[in-house]
Design goal:
This protein has 10 helices and 15 strands. With 318 residues, the chain is an alpha/beta fold. It is flat. The structure holds adenosine-5'-triphosphate and zinc ion.
Amino acid sequence: MSKDTQRLRIALQKSGRLHEDSLAILRLCGIKLTPDSRQLLCRSEEMPLDLLFIRDDDIPGFVAEGICDLGIVGENIYWEEHCAWEHDRERGDHISDSGPFRARVSRKLGFSRCRLSLAGPAEFARRYQEQGPKALQGCTIASSYPASLEHFLKENNVQAEIIKMKGSVELAPKLGIADLICDLISTGSTLVANNLVECHSFLKSEAVLLEHGGNEESRTDWSPQRLACFQQLQTRLDGVLRARNSKYVMMNAPKDKVLEISRLLPGADSPTVIPLGDPEQVAIHVVSGEPVVWETMEALKAAGAHSILIQSIEKVLL
Ligand code: ATP
Ligand code: ZN
């Protein structure tokens, strides 16, 4: 597939857990798309950008090779491909490029949260509690993330056998294929159903935006349109991410309590104070950069505020 040098290209998961949320975050950035599920490539009409829909495992490699400029993928997949690349490099297995892995995490996107963990029968979990990673010495561990696991074992100076499995890893101990597993966990219900206990989590993951090269130099040959689109997308994405973490807080309060109340709001800008019909009362509006918990609302009320409303924000442009 030849690449149009005028257009930005973003890799997304074709179908699966990340697909919908990845499209949703791009739509919030103003990218209008009607992707056809059978299509590999989808063009945006308003912006000079194309979306490439592929398997998530291929996304880090496509970004590292520069086939795509950006990609949205689980950090666990990024880390696995990164470790696999480094291991091949150490062994001298690389066919073409023997340089570093040219994809980096540019932004964490806050969805598809999970963790990569070691799990085993309860008896092993107790041993792990006592001994730490040393308990893994000589064990057999089934995993779909062999490179990440190998990296962890090396880091801890432990020798263990890794059995690579594509799926149903949680069945390995029951089937006698392995002593333990190393797999993705979100709620832990699959572990419970298979009588396994989480021993240690060594990678926290969420969807991330990957960027090719990770430095300005890699973009020197870009057309001005492509560069402008890249920068605009990043600014808009930051606006969406900031909005996700922010709340619009409104309340009424006695005029003389404004200062005390403002101090109670976490990560808030200077408040907007609006006069009300009652000359002793004002309305206070403020954007809080952090979630506002019940305890904060109760403290605001105790300080004299009332009619407290917390609203979600869709976009922010500073
Ligand atoms: P593909 O066909 O693209 O290869 P897949 O079957 O490998 O898809 P999915 O099951 O769609 O992948 O999961 C994609 C990602 O979702 C995982 O790599 C991980 O980042 C995230 N994820 C979040 N929670 C979980 C979970 N409980 N189990 C597995 N993946 C999870
Ligand atoms: Zn996959």
